[in-house]
Amino acid sequence: MQNREIAAIFNELADLLEIKGENPFKVRAYRNAARTLESIGKPVEEMVAEGKDLSILPGIGKDLAEKIKEILRTGKLQKLDNLKKEIPEALRALLSIEGLGPKRVKVLYETLHISDPDALKEAALHHEISKLPGFGPKTEEKILKGIRLLKQEGVRFLFAEAEPIVEELIAYLQKAPGILTIEAAGSFRRKKETVGDVDMLCTAKEPPKVIDYFTKFSQVLEVISAGTTRSTVVLKNSLQIDLRVVEKESYGAALHYFTGSKTHVIAIRQIAIDLGLKINEYGVYQKEQKVAGLTEKDVYESVHLPVIPPELRENRGEIEAAAKNRLPNLITLEDIRGDLHMHTTYSDGMDTLETMVKTAIAKNYTYIAVTDHSATLAVVKGLDAQKALKQFEEIEKLRERYAPFHIFKGMEVDILEDGSPGMEDDILKQLDIALGAIHSKFKLTRKAQTKRLIKAIQNPYIKGIAHPTGRLIGKRAPLELDFKEICKAIKEEGKFLEINAQPERLDLNDVLIKEAREKGVKFSIATDAHASGQLSYMRYGINQARRGWLEKEDVVNTKSLETLVKFLK
DNA sequence: GCCGTTTTCGGCCCGACTGTTTTCAGTCG
Fold first, then answer.
1. Rounded CA separation A25/A139 (Å)
2. Which CATH class is domain A3-149?
């Protein structure tokens, strides 16, 4: 049982309790616990197995610790099952309709016996909703709109999908009348691998004019709200954007607040309270006196901390590290000297080897590794021994032509079910960088999958593991692995784990990167480019690495050519 | 239901926006 499955049970319980009209603080307690479960890296199942007390976790007390154990033991929660007999589960779906919260859902259920979106639509079309006390024609209209916009639960955008839209919107808003500054906050600023919506923050001479201009952005499908300082719209691609206009004097406090994460902000506010201060989105206050708020730096200084980079603001130890002045010196894109994973027309890449070389040189890289697929991978035409030898020849020619730029002979070698590489040793031993990668048999048991990967790591020719967990965000779950054992093997063998920068892979995730780093694992950050343009995906890998607390020294492709060659040997 | 350097009770973030109502409740972030 995974943490997020337990979190889902708590969230469901919270929804139903809320509709029932339970104490809102109790409801929040369940939600807080769910958030804790989602954000801690370690499975609570392991903690229980180790005999650890779960109530050490923030937001989890005696009662919830017991409920978690019940879920782990029985796979379900009696309290939730009981509640479902009282309140139809389907009512939850109504909560995700814009403008409908627990109170209104309760009224709709108790008066009109509406328990699903279809019945709700019927009732709205027959103008039954507007007759209810507290409801009116506008609400009815809004509900119909909300049903049309009803998003499936948990639809999030890949960071790389949101990025161009945010850039376009910023360019547009920079032309708004009287605009002073404009910036994206929220999970986008924290460079999270997926974003649910985008929070934008600006300062302006006449806020209402900017709001008006914002709602006229060409991609806007629906204006949800538009006040004097704040507006929410949904774009044609269903991405929601919130814009807030704030006073210049409050900008730092607002930026901190809207950048989040929620748990980070709460933790910072708690420190402020302990110091006799109060932080809100407008500033830092001592009694009634505002003492800071202009910049984020001022906000952090008020609680005696250095500025914490947005990528780290997840309440995963960054505040403690900041207090001890031990924040990592995070890696940057400029630290990268080369790319160690890419494909060419020798396998499933779109561009020739030489084009990849030229593009890498234009990026001021010192080296690349060309890593086409081995032929065992049935879905793509890969390299057999003969084709590999032909590629070696071309690489040697290009090395001469483009010296001192260096091209490593590499290969993305399929790891077979038994953990052996899908390429003969005779070829493997001629490679500088063989990356092991799993492309099949994703469903092996945790034990078998771990054994398979460790065997590959121990293979003397394999230097690193590409996209280690095999996940595709929103599409394919990560492999079942004993990650601790994987890290141990990587470290013992002096190998590296790849952080794959493809936007829908971003594999490893931030939590695993941090965990591996703490165990002394080295990483590569590589694009797995299948076209020369994708070499610029490196920035997404950097985002992920920063969220995983990596410094330059943790990453092998920040090293000079000489040092990297030594490392590979 | 959680939590504690005002501790075992009594707090728990709170302001903006909207719609319905006429001073406020519900929702949202």
1. 27
2. mainly alpha
